[in-house]
Amino acid sequence: MNYRHAYHAGNFADVFKHLILTFAIQRLRQKDKPFRVIDTHAGVGRYDLTADQATRTGEWREGIGRLFAARQKNWPGMSSMLGADPTIAAYLAAIGATGANRYLDGNALNVYPGSPALARALLRPQDMLIVNELHPEDATSLRGLFSRDRQTKVLDLDGWLLPKSALPPPERRGVILVDPPFEEAGEFDRLARVLREGIKRFATGIYLLWYPIKNLPAVERFKLGIAGVPAGKMLAAEIFIRAPDTPDMLNGCGLIIHNPPFGLTDWLEEIAPALVDVLHQDKGAQWRIEALRPLAAG
Questions:
Q1: Among 279, 290, 231, 287, which Cα is nearest to 256's?
Q2: Which one of 36, 57, 153, 212 is CB 3.0 to 4.6 Å from 174, fit for a cystine?
Q3: So what's the pLDDT on residue 33?
């Protein structure tokens, strides 16, 4: 377990993933009925951008740093839609409410929320959050973060096995984020498996499965295989900060979205071009949304 997200917190992949998570939670909030957010690989919950790990890589400066600067200064190439988008506004407001941040006054961005802190900031009093982290040190940090929070339960299980114990949620409404570290072989296969197992227990849930894009053929094989998962509508939403032709680099990332919330495709098509303008690192940057259709039998 060598992967530590503190080195990568707030990078372009976090921005893309967390914006889609924010959109999904906002859609669930439109009904009064309670819902549950389940995060299978939660990390420590929030990250100090002034700490050694974050400053050593500086990845956040090319991710949330760029988005914040773009929205504040209306960078050339950024559409007015991106600047005024309510989901982006909610996402940035949640960041502003995290830790020591003072950027709403035009000052420093010091702390970045991981998906647990972001999701918690978006919950209503009737909603619940389940966060899970196997890494012992990170699990301890996560417990400390939510030690007095009655709406959040912290687990330290194998995230790949969590659907067996956490689904279906009592509320019968919710979003499940599966965001593995991708430090071991077979993670793509595990993603497909955890989705199949989750659907058996909670077919109506919104599933967000994150994946890195380094080796493009491997990603295409994964999507071809996951298209065979029965039941529900599925999308693959992807962003590339550079041309996907360097297999030893993180060229982009994507999410498989099972039961995508109403309006998600239209929203992504509106904001993605401007988001690429802000986050790109070479002229090969792009975005794409693909509907994954079930494979024909036989």
A1: 290
A2: 36
A3: 98
Q: In this predicted structure, what is the pLDDT of residue 100?
A: 56
Q: Please write the tens of the pLDDT for every residue from 138-173.
A: 999 999 999 999 999 999 999 999 988 899 999 999
Tracing tokens 């050593």 back to the chain, one arrives at: 56
Nearest Cα to 29, choosing from 200, 206, 178? 206
HSE-up (13 A, CA, CB side) for residue 40:
26
Task: Identify the segments of the chain with pLDDT beneath 50.
Answer: 1-2, 103-107, 295-298
Question: Which are the catalytic amino acids?
Answer: 179
| CATH class of segment(s) 10-45+115-291 | alpha beta
What pLDDT does 226 receive? 87
State the number of CA atoms in the 13 A half-sphere of 15 facing the CB.
Answer: 27
In 3D, which of 115, 129, 73, 118 has the Cα closest to residue 93?
Answer: 118
* Contact between residue 27 and residue 127 where contact means Cβ atoms under 8 Å apart: no
Residue 119 — φ and ψ, nearest 5°? -60, -40
The pLDDT score that the predictor gives to residue 108 is: 64
Altogether, the residues listed in the chain come to a count of 298
**Could you tell me which residues are beta bridge partners of residue 155?**
132
